[in-house]
Amino acid sequence: MENNHNRQCQDLPQVLLLKPPPPIMVVLGEHRFSSTKFQFLKAWDSPLPLNQFLPKHANSIQAILCCSASRVTDDLLQLLPFVRLVVTASAGTNHIDLKACRRRGISVTNAGNVYSEDGADAAVGLLFDVLRKISAADRHVRQGLWVKKGDYPLGSKVGGKRIGIVGLGGIGLQVAKRLEAFGCIISYNSRNKKKFVSYPFYSNVCELAANSDALIICCSLTDQTRYMINKEVLSALGKKGVIVNVGRGAIIDEKELVRCLVTGAIAGAGLDVFENEPHVPKQLLELDNVVLSPHRAVITPESFTALCELVVGNLEAFFSNLPLLSPVMIECIDG
Ligand SMILES: O=CC(=O)O
C-alpha cells in the first residue's frame, strides 16, 4: 500500500518550490498543501546545488510556486523546458520575467485580490499615523517627554484631504473606498483611465501630486513605474504633502525621498516597502515624520488563509485543464 502510494506520488507532476514558504503559510496551509494532482518539490531539501538539482528534475517539473523573494528569470526557465505555469504568492510580479514567460507560453498567476483589503487597511493606517503623528506621539509618551517637555505637536485632520492614489487596482480601489468614507477627496493615476469610477483621472503623476495633499502608492513595479516618483513628483507634492508606499520600494527614487524628508521638502511618509529590503536608509530611522513597516501591509492570518486556497486552487485548476483562478494579464506589462 505504502509502496503504491509512493509510486503514485513519484508519477505526479511536480511543482518546484525554490525557497521555503514563510512559516505562517506552512501552518495555515498545511491541510491544503497536499493534492492528488501534483507534488511539491522542495529545492532547499536537496543536498545538490541548484544547477545540478534542476537538470535532475527538469523532466517532471511542470509548474513553479514562488514568492516575491525568489526570482524567476529567463535563465531559470531555460533549465525547465516543461514548465507551463508560474504561481506567485504575491500580488506583485516584478520578480518574474513576464516577457520570458509569454515568449515561452508559460501562464502566470498571482495573489489576485486576496490582499486588497488588508493592503488598503495598512495604507490607510500608515496615512493616519503620519498625519495624526500616532507613532511619534506614542514615543513621546513612552520616553517620559510628556512630563518633561509637555505636549507633542498636533497632527492634521484626515477628512477633507485630497488623496492621489497611484495605481487603482485591487488595493487602490479599496483605499479609495475607505478614504472616501472619511471625507477625503480622491483622484488617481494609473496606466489607463478606469471607466467604472468617477474619481478624477490624471495621466500625469506629477499633476496628480500637485493636486494632492497625500499620494498613496499602490501600483506594481514595472519598467514604466520604476522611479516614477522622482524629484519632480516629490516637489510637486510639496512641503505639506505626505506619501504612503505599499507598492514596491523602487517605485520611488528612495535617495530623493530621503533628501525630501530630511530637508522638509515634503511633510512625511508612511513606508511599508523599500528598495533594498530588509535594509532601510539609516536617515529614515532618525525621522519622527516617517512611519516604517517591514513589508507586511498585505499579510494577515486571514489573507494568508485565503492565499493558500488560491495558490492550491490555481495549481489544481492547471493540472485539471480548468481555467486559472487569478491569471496575470501578461499583455498589460507593455502598457
Ligand atoms: O507586497 C506584497 C505582494 O506583492 O504581494
CATH superfamily of the largest domain: NAD(P)-binding Rossmann-like Domain
CATH architecture identity of the largest domain: 3-Layer(aba) Sandwich
* CATH C-level of the largest domain: Alpha Beta
Count of the domains: 2
- Please give the share of residues in helix: 25-40%
Query: How many helical elements?
Result: 14
Q: Average pLDDT across residues?
A: 93
Order of helical and strand elements: HEHEHEHEHEHHHEHEHEHEHEHEH
Q: What Rg do the Cα atoms give?
A: 22 Å
**First CA to last CA: what distance?**
54 Å
The ligands bound in this entry are:
glyoxylic acid
* Structural class based on helices, strands and sheet pairing: alpha/beta
Question: What is the CATH topology assignment of the largest domain?
Answer: Rossmann fold
Largest sheet, spatial ordering of strands: 7-6-8-9-10-11
Low-confidence residue ranges: 1-8, 331-335
Number of strands: 11
Biggest beta sheet summary: 6 strands, parallel
Task: Report strand %.
Answer: 5-15%
Protein name: glyoxylate reductase (NADP(+))
Pfam family, one: 2-Hacid_dh_C
EC number: 1.1.1.79
GO molecular function: glyoxylate reductase (NADPH) activity; hydroxypyruvate reductase [NAD(P)H] activity; NAD binding
